[in-house]
Amino acid sequence: MKLLIIGNKERYEKFRPDLPIYDESEKIFCPRGTSDQDLLKDGRDADVILADAITPVSAQLIGQMPNLKMIHSEGVAFDKIDTAAAAARGIYVCNNKGRNAGAVAEQAILLMLGVLRSVVPGHQAVCQGKQIQMKERLMVEGITDLADCRIGLIGLGDIGKATAKRLAAFECPCFYYSRHKRNAQEEAECGVSYLPLDELLSSCDIISLHMAVNEETTHFMNRERISQMKDGAILINTGRGELVENEALCQAIESGKLGGAGLDTIFPEPVQADNPVAVLAQRFPDRVLLAPHLGGITTGSFKRMHRHTWENAARIASGEKPDCVVNMP
Predict the structure, then answer these.
(1) Is residue 240 among the annotated active site residues?
(2) 7 phi-psi bin (left φ>0, alpha ψ -120 to 50, beta other)
(3) pLDDT tens across the length of the chain (329 residues)
């Protein structure tokens, strides 16, 4: 079997699982950003594409690969893959659902605490010899305990559930909104209560996004929904940058409508220094905390994701249906 791998070769070699399929298959590695034309030079006859989670896999590319049977995201996101074009040709599109849920949940809580505890400006103050001034200022301004915050989760999939379960240790009142209300047993297991979206936005001190990106959720947190949030609330995003409208977020921070934001992802990626949200963080370091999309890329996550990817490749090689199919071929 032949695989076209669009991504970092060193990463694939580092996290290679102890499975026969890895050594038995022919692998063509191409870096992220390689044009479709160049991908087809050596990969036209590949049976499988393995793609970095933010790498586009176009209908044009799919249409010119006659042997293609599966396209697999290296991560959980698959919005850059043309799933409809794949389905039209009977090609499976798969992801690594749930394999990094715990790691992303940890990142969400890190960002919550980082904003509440002024981690970045506090670090800078100590390094500048202004430790006591910073401490005295915050004692007057106040520091909010995470336990005193009402947390609103938008989305209760694998990552949302993992976040809720970890927040239980902080004794936070935790609520959620999703298109489909969960049953009483699931809610009890996660320690969450359902609220309609408008009530969740207006009543929670921290709103944390745990949604997939699609046509319905792009710019989900726009000017209108941010205006519904509680004054001084904090927005956390460990989903994808496309979930948040950058201009609306910047205006809400500048006006003081939002008390802060903790973002693991910003649109577009790779993030450049002149991105308005990056500029915003420079202006408001005590209220905006950014991370370079680290939530789901821990060593443990990559081990689980790569093992699952190659298990699915082995299923394709054996003529079996793969796991975690996200389209309907």
Answers:
(1) yes
(2) left
(3) 999 999 999 999 999 999 999 999 999 999 999 999 999 999 999 999 999 999 999 999 999 999 999 999 999 999 999 999 999 999 999 999 999 999 999 999 999 999 999 999 999 999 999 999 999 999 999 999 999 999 999 999 999 999 999 999 999 999 999 999 999 999 999 999 999 999 999 999 999 999 999 999 999 999 999 999 999 999 999 999 999 999 999 999 999 999 999 999 999 999 999 999 999 999 999 999 999 999 999 999 999 999 999 999 999 999 999 999 999 87
Catalytic-labelled residue, pool 106, 187, 269, 311:
269
Q: Which CATH superfamily is domain 101-290 in?
A: NAD(P)-binding Rossmann-like Domain (3.40.50.720)
293 is catalytic: yes
pTM confidence score: 0.93
Residues 6+ apart with CB under 8 A from 75: 52, 53, 95, 96, 100, 296, 305
Amino acid at 191: G
Catalytic residue among 210, 225, 293, 306, which? Answer: 293
CA distance 129 to 224: 42
Find residue 167's DSSP bridge partners: none
Catalytic residue flag (residue 306): no
| CATH code of the domain occupying 2-99+299-317 | 3.40.50.720
